[in-house]
Amino acid sequence: MRPFSYERAESPAGAAAAVASRPGARFIAGGTNLLDLMKFQIETPTHLVDIRHLPLRAIEDTPDGGLRIGALVTNTELASHPRVKRDYGVVSRAIVAGATGQLRNKATTAGNILQRNRCPYFYETNLPCNKRAPGSGCSALGGVTRSLAVIGTSPHCIAQNPGDLAVALRVLDAGVETVGPDGSRRAIPVADFHRLPGDAPEIEVPLAPGELVTAVTLPKPLGGSHHYHKVRDRASYAFALVSVAAVLQRDGTGRVAFGGVAPRPWRVEAAEALLPRGPAAVVAAAFEGATPTADNAFKIPLAARTLALVSEEGRA
Amino acid sequence: MGSAVTTDIDRREVVAGAAAGLAAAALPAPAGAQAGGPLPPALPVSLTVNGEARRLVLDARVTLLDALREHLHLTGTKKGCDHGHCGACTVLVNGTRINACLSLAVMHEGDAVTTVEGLGRPGDLHPMQAAFLDHDAFQCGYCTPGQICSAVAMLDEIGRGVPSHATGDLTAPMVLGAGELRERMSGNICRCGAYSNIADAVAAVAGSTP
C-alpha cells in the first residue's frame, strides 16, 4: 500500500467535509473492497477518513411502512434482520448469495453498493483500463470477456457491476440517502445510482466529492414471493455470471432485475410487464439491443433459463 | 501438464486483447514507486487481544493480521492470500469472524480480538480445537487456525439466526445440515483437501450430522 494519513470522523457531515477538502481522501468503513484494491495499488488514497464509528448503524421503520437501513449496517446484520427476512426476502437472499461469512460480517450496506467492478483488466495494473487510468483504453475489448457485461456497455468499458445486493435493491425501487460537505441532504433513487459507462467509465456513481451515503431506504413491502437466484462458476463465494432478483405475485405479474450482465443492475420495467407471457418474452425484451461478445453471449439464454427456474419457484 | 498449458493459453489471450490499446496507454506508475515526502506519523491503537490489553503504535497501513503476527508475535493466525480469499487469517473481533488481512489495525481501537491462541491452550483446548485433533481435520495445518476460528463463530451465527445461501425458509429456526455447514465454511480454503474431516469435526461440536 502507498502511505496515507488517517483520521476518525466525528459526524457524517464532518466526514463529508474532511473528504471534500483533501484531494485523494477517501472514506473507509468495512474496507473489504478498498483495502484489497489498495494492496494492488489500484486505489491509492493519500488520506483515509474512518467512518466506522458514526451513528449510521440502525435499521428502523419509516412512516410509510418501509425501512431505513443505516449505511454502516453490515451485510450480515441486514440479511439477519427479522423484518428484512420476513418482508424483503430478496435482500437477505441476495446478500447471502455473495462473498463469505467473514466478509459479510465486515462489509457495510453503503460499501456494498459502492463496490468497484471485478473486470480482470481493472485488476491488472500493467494493462490499460479506462476505469483505473481514464483515457488509457479498454483492454477487455478483444480480450477475455466471459464474465463481462452484455448490455449497457460503451466502446470505453464493458465491465459489469458485480453486486448482488444492488440487484435486489433495484427490484424494490430502493433509495439512497446522502449528506454533503455543507450538511445538505438528498435522496437518489437506486435506479439512478449506478451509471452506465458512456465516455466516462471512471465515474460509477452520481456522488459529488465528499458526498457520503448515510442510508438506504426500502419502500413498503411488496408482498409476493421473493427470489434471488445466482448462477456462478462454483457453488459458493464467486461472482455472478447471471443472477435474477424477482418479486412475483400470485396473478403472474411481478418485478425482475438481472445481475452480472450490465454495468448496473439491469431492470427494464417494460420487459417485466411481460412476465405473464413467460420468461423468454421478458428476457427478449430486457436484452433488446444487447452487444455480447462471442465469449459471453451465453449469458442471455442463461438469463432466460434462470428466470424460468425462478418463475417455477414462484409457482411452487 | 494439461492445466499448465491451459493457463498459458489464457494468459496469452489476456495479453493479446490488450495489445491494441497498449501503445497509447497512460500506464500507472510502477508498483514500487512511492510518492516523495516523509511518511505520515505512526498512530496509537489500544485493543484487547485474547483478554489482554495491548497498546501499539503503528503505521496506518498495518493490517490487523500483521499487527497480530509481526507486532504481537501471535503467529497462530496465518497469512495465506492477504486478499480475503482464503480465510487463513480468520479471527474473532467482538465475537464475530472477519478476515484480519482486510482490516487496518488502527481501526480496531477498543475492540476485543480473539485468535486461535485465545480459544484454548495445550491441556485446556477449546472443544473445536479438540474436535479437529480427534477427527484428523487437517494435513499441513496452515489453514487450521482460520478454520477453527471460523467454525466457532459460524456456530454462534446459526444461534443468532444469521441466514446463509443454503437456508431454506429464512424465518424458520436455523438447522446446521450438511449443506449449511459447507456453505457457511466456504470462506476457508484447505489446499490439502481435508474438508470431509473438517466437516466431521465441526459437526461433532455442533451435535449435528455432517
TrEMBL record, chain A:
<keyword id="KW-0285">Flavoprotein</keyword>
<dbReference type="InterPro" id="IPR016169">
    <property type="entry name" value="FAD-bd_PCMH_sub2"/>
</dbReference>
<dbReference type="InterPro" id="IPR002346">
    <property type="entry name" value="Mopterin_DH_FAD-bd"/>
</dbReference>
<dbReference type="InterPro" id="IPR016167">
    <property type="entry name" value="FAD-bd_PCMH_sub1"/>
</dbReference>
<dbReference type="Pfam" id="PF03450">
    <property type="entry name" value="CO_deh_flav_C"/>
</dbReference>
<dbReference type="InterPro" id="IPR051312">
    <property type="entry name" value="Diverse_Substr_Oxidored"/>
</dbReference>
<dbReference type="InterPro" id="IPR036318">
    <property type="entry name" value="FAD-bd_PCMH-like_sf"/>
</dbReference>
<protein>
    <submittedName>
        <fullName>Aldehyde oxidoreductase FAD-binding subunit PaoB</fullName>
    </submittedName>
</protein>
<dbReference type="InterPro" id="IPR005107">
    <property type="entry name" value="CO_DH_flav_C"/>
</dbReference>
<dbReference type="Pfam" id="PF00941">
    <property type="entry name" value="FAD_binding_5"/>
</dbReference>
<keyword id="KW-0274">FAD</keyword>
<dbReference type="InterPro" id="IPR016166">
    <property type="entry name" value="FAD-bd_PCMH"/>
</dbReference>
<dbReference type="InterPro" id="IPR036683">
    <property type="entry name" value="CO_DH_flav_C_dom_sf"/>
</dbReference>
<feature type="domain" description="FAD-binding PCMH-type">
    <location>
        <begin position="1"/>
        <end position="223"/>
    </location>
</feature>
TrEMBL record, chain B:
<dbReference type="Pfam" id="PF01799">
    <property type="entry name" value="Fer2_2"/>
</dbReference>
<dbReference type="InterPro" id="IPR002888">
    <property type="entry name" value="2Fe-2S-bd"/>
</dbReference>
<keyword id="KW-0408">Iron</keyword>
<keyword id="KW-0560">Oxidoreductase</keyword>
<dbReference type="InterPro" id="IPR036010">
    <property type="entry name" value="2Fe-2S_ferredoxin-like_sf"/>
</dbReference>
<dbReference type="Pfam" id="PF00111">
    <property type="entry name" value="Fer2"/>
</dbReference>
<feature type="domain" description="2Fe-2S ferredoxin-type">
    <location>
        <begin position="43"/>
        <end position="119"/>
    </location>
</feature>
<dbReference type="InterPro" id="IPR006311">
    <property type="entry name" value="TAT_signal"/>
</dbReference>
<protein>
    <submittedName>
        <fullName>Aldehyde oxidoreductase iron-sulfur-binding subunit PaoA</fullName>
    </submittedName>
</protein>
<keyword id="KW-0479">Metal-binding</keyword>
<dbReference type="InterPro" id="IPR012675">
    <property type="entry name" value="Beta-grasp_dom_sf"/>
</dbReference>
<dbReference type="InterPro" id="IPR036884">
    <property type="entry name" value="2Fe-2S-bd_dom_sf"/>
</dbReference>
<dbReference type="InterPro" id="IPR006058">
    <property type="entry name" value="2Fe2S_fd_BS"/>
</dbReference>
<dbReference type="InterPro" id="IPR052914">
    <property type="entry name" value="Aldehyde_Oxdr_Iron-Sulfur"/>
</dbReference>
<dbReference type="InterPro" id="IPR001041">
    <property type="entry name" value="2Fe-2S_ferredoxin-type"/>
</dbReference>
